[in-house]
Prior knowledge:
alpha/beta, Rossmann fold, Hnrnp arginine n-methyltransferase1, 2 domains, 6-stranded antiparallel beta sheet, 5-stranded parallel beta sheet, 10 helices
Amino acid sequence: xxxxxxxxxxxxxxxxxxxxxxxxxxxxxxxxxxxxxxxxxxxxxxxxxxxxxxxxxxxxxxxxxxxxxxxxxxxxxxxxxxxxxxxxxxxxxxxxxxxxxxxxxxxxxxxxxxxxxxxxxxxxxxxxxxxxxxxxxxxxxxxxxxxxxxxxxxxxxxxxxxxxxxxxxxxxxxxxxxxxxxxxxxxxxxxxxxxxxxxxxxxxxxxxxxxxxxxxxxxxxxxxxxxxxxxxxxxxxxxxxxxxxxxxxxxxxxxxxxxxxxxxxxxxxxxxxxxxxxxxxxxxxxxxxxxxxxxxxxxxxxxxxxxxxxxxxxxxxxxxxxxxxxxxxxxxxxxxxxxxxxxxxxxxxxxxxxxxxxxxxxxxxxxxxxxxxxxxxxxxx
Length: 381
Ligand SMILES: C[S@@+](CC[C@H](N)C(=O)[O-])C[C@H]1O[C@@H](n2cnc3c(N)ncnc32)[C@H](O)[C@@H]1O
């Protein structure tokens, strides 16, 4: 529920507020707010700045699910990497570049736009790999490499997969620098959605009815206020759920093959799909959770390797992206839930994720709600 806030970059920017404080019900809802005075270049700069701090890199590297998946995927592809050239898009502290050198790459170009590139250079030096890993400072869109590469590796995934819009940088690098038939690590991504009954949220909403038994003061009238505060906003909430919070069999609603021609335009227009669920049982439904997985080719003899952020798998720093309805809706066994979900870049800032949701629960009328991610990054405490 409450968004963790450590690695926070200002929301909305320029005081124009977040995007899409919309009503849940009825019609086309897009509220086009005045565009910020900041140029795209200034926004990009602001985005890179939040990667200059140590906390975000600490959180990513401490995420064993993430970092081990990349390490294993790189090592399993050793035969494609040995003696080859690699571009690491957004190298951060350089860890993936070093994994590639350890797997036998002849030359790794570690491209990093934020000031953390200096730390990457130190890490490369400390590991005695200066002759094989070259750290280059700048956005991958403008950096010049001396050659085309055999492999592109990148950890580009944001909350809800597409927050930060870093995938489009990877796709541009693919078009410009990857040799025909070159390897992409990871090679594809899938998005999933499921209706949820969020037990933590339910406890918080019920809290006000419990106050009387502790202090003798009836505060149950605040439950509606709590519901408006916790569910009424249109922000995308980053929190981890458990499998028990999932109300129906999850569905994949989008599949992104990173080698697909035209994917950049698809991302601009919005990726998504329809869904239809049949509920497992009786519960208050609070909304939907979305999550993703990315898949790495398995190398010579192995199966593809999947890095999953599902609530049925060990938690990652991405957790899940939660889309709360304005209030809980009671569902029963086999209640039909259907709708459509679309992820697209915000019009206010292309790096901010926006999600359009259209849904129908049982016999209720169809509703829509528009969500936005209000910060570039957050880091859990
Ligand atoms: C999610 S972090 C991954 C860092 C590192 N690869 C790791 O796995 O620990 C993404 C990094 O990409 C950098 N980045 C994002 N867009 C970029 C771009 N267009 N060009 C170069 N670096 C970029 C960010 O500054 C950040 O350090």
